[in-house]
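Need a sequence for this fold. Nothing fancy.
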């Protein structure tokens, strides 16, 4: 009887192992697929860094990597940007548009022009999206390089993976997280500039 139990136990282990292997392989395959649009976008970005809303011509190279929702938000932010300058044609004050000096996919100020990147871990989130962390580096020798991380949120859309948002993670320089999708809406009501308070509201 003990021999039969041992044989049965070994069979169960084999069945369990065969069941786990395809699952692990599937997760790894999804992770690798999710990293593809992230790699493509950041390869393009470090080759030609941008500040602010990309031009229509520049957006052509980014568009294949972005979701319809994020593309729409960028389009509305560009229209809101144009609306601000329509409302303030002779204003010499620096425009308060939050994204003017913002690296759209990398971060604010001295984070707007990364010169290299490295794809880090990918993990599945509860809403079935996949978070892909990206380590960005700026600074050319003899400058001391500095690094920071962002997280690209990847979803499946129309049969392929695309970036639906970018999270600017907390670190020693920034105490809070922020999201590209939210930054693009600040001061705007859709395509219209409304400002950050009643004193700046659109008439």
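Here you go.
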């Amino acid at each position: 009887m003990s021999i039969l139990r041992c044989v049965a136990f070994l069979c169960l282990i084999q069945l369990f192992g065969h069941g786990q292997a395809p699952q692990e392989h599937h997760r790894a395959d999804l992770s690798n697929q999710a990293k593809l649009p992230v790699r493509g976008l950041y390869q393009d970005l470090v080759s030609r860094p941008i500040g602010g809303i990309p031009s229509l011509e520049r957006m052509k190279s980014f568009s294949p990597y972005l979701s319809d929702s994020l593309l729409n938000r960028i389009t509305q932010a560009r229209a809101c940007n144009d609306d601000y300058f329509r409302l303030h044609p002779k204003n010499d004050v620096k425009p308060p548009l939050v994204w003017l000096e913002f690296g759209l996919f990398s971060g604010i100020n001295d984070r707007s022009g990364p010169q290299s990147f490295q794809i880090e871990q990918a993990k599945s989130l509860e809403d079935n999206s996949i978070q892909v962390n990206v380590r960005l580096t700026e600074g050319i020798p003899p400058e001391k390089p500095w690094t920071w991380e962002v997280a690209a949120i990847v979803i499946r859309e129309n049969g392929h993976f695309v970036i639906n948002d970018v999270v600017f993670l907390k670190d020693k320089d920034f105490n809070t997280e922020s999201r590209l999708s939210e930054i693009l809406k600040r001061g705007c009501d859709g395509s219209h500039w409304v400002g950050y308070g009643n004193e700046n509201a659109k008439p």
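For context: The first strand starts at residue 102 and ends at 103.
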